[in-house]
C-alpha cells in the first residue's frame, strides 16, 4: 500500500478551533510533523498539536518558513525537510503534517507535498481543512467578511503594498496577511483609498498575547509578522443592500 501524507490545518492558534476531523487525523497518524524555524522555538502549529497528541509522537522538522531573500537557501531547506519526511514515510504508513490555518492557503505544506511527489511518486497526499486567521479575526472583531454579491480578496503583503492598494481600490472586502513588517505602508494605503475607518487588524489570535485593534490606531510601528487585516467592503447599512 502507498504511504499517506496528510496536511492538517490546525487553525490560527486557538486549540479549540481545530476541527474534529483534524484532531482525528492527528491522532490516527503514526507520526505528526510540525514545521519549525532554524532558531528552534516552538511554533503555533506545534503548540496546538500538543493539546491533542503526546509529545513523543510529534517530530520537529526545520523549514525556511520566512526565507524570501535567498532562494538557494530556501530550496535547500525544502529539499532537506522533504528528505526527512520521505524517511518517515518509509518507516510509517501515515504521516501527518500540521500547519497553521488551512493547508491549501499560503501553507508550507504545499511545497512539502510537491517535494514528496517528486521524490516518491505514488504517495497519497490528502488535506484536512482548517479555520483561517481571517475567519477567526472576523469572529473576534465582529467584522463581516462578505455580504450578497461582494467579492473577497486575500492579499499577502509580502507581495508588496502596491498589490494591496490595488485590491483596496476595488469594491469588496480585502484581507491582508503577513503585513506586520509593512504596517506603515498598509496604514498609508488604507488612508489613500478611504478604507481606514472600518478596518481592523489582529495578531496572536486565541493566544494570551492576542491583540485586536482598529486599523485607525496603526502608528507605523512594526507588528508581529503574522498580523492579519480586514478592510470590510463599503456598505450603506441597508439590510440585504448587496444582494
How does this model look, in words?
The chain has 7 helices and 10 strands. The chain has 243 residues and is an alpha/beta fold. α3 crosses α4. The longest helix is centred in the middle third of the chain and has 21 residues. The radius of gyration is 19 Å and the shape is elongated. 38% of the residues are buried. The model has no long low-confidence stretch (mean pLDDT 91).
What is this structure, in a nutshell?
The protein is of the alpha/beta class and 243 residues long. The protein has seven helices and ten strands.
Overall shape:
elongated
- SSE sequence, one letter per element: EHEHEHEHEHEHEHEEE
Radius of gyration: 19 Å
Number of helices: 7
Strand pairing plus helix content: what structural class? alpha/beta
- What is the strand content? 15-25%
Question: Main β-sheet, in a few words?
Answer: 5 strands, parallel
Number of strands: 10
Strand order of the largest sheet: 3-2-4-1-5
Spans with pLDDT under 50 lasting ≥5 residues? none
Distance from first to last alpha carbon: 50 Å
Amino acid at each position: 500500500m502507498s504511504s499517506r501524507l496528510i496536511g492538517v490545518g490546525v487553525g490560527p492558534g486557538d486549540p479549540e478551533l481545530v476541527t474534529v476531523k483534524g484532531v482525528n487525523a492527528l491522532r490516527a497518524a503514526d507520526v505528526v510533523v510540525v514545521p519549525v524555524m532554524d532558531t528552534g522555538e516552538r511554533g503555533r502549529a506545534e503548540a496546538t498539536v500538543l493539546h491533542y497528541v503526546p509529545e513523543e509522537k510529534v517530530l520537529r522538522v526545520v523549514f525556511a518558513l520566512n526565507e524570501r531573500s535567498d532562494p538557494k537557501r530556501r530550496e535547500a531547506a525544502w529539499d532537506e525537510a522533504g528528505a526527512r519526511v520521505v524517511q518517515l514515510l518509509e518507516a510509517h504508513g501515515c504521516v501527518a503534517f500540521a500547519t497553521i490555518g488551512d493547508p491549501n492557503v499560503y501553507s508550507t505544506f504545499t511545497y512539502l507535498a510537491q517535494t514528496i511527489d517528486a521524490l516518491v511518486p505514488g504517495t497519497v497526499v490528502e488535506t484536512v481543512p482548517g479555520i483561517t486567521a481571517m475567519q477567526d479575526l472576523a469572529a473576534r472583531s465582529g467584522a463581516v467578511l462578505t455580504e450578497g454579491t461582494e467579492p473577497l480578496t486575500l492579499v499577502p503583503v509580502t507581495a508588496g503594498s502596491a498589490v494591496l492598494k490595488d485590491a483596496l481600490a476595488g469594491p469588496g472586502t480585502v484581507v491582508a496577511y503577513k503585513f506586520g513588517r509593512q504596517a506603515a505602508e498598509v496604514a498609508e494605503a488604507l488612508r489613500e483609498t478611504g478604507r481606514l475607518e472600518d478596518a481592523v487588524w489582529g495578531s496572536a489570535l486565541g493566544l494570551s498575547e492576542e491583540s485586536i485593534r482598529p486599523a485607525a490606531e496603526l502608528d507605523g510601528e512594526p507588528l508581529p509578522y503574522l498580523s492579519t487585516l480586514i478592510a470590510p467592503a463599503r456598505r450603506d447599512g441597508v439590510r440585504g443592500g448587496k444582494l
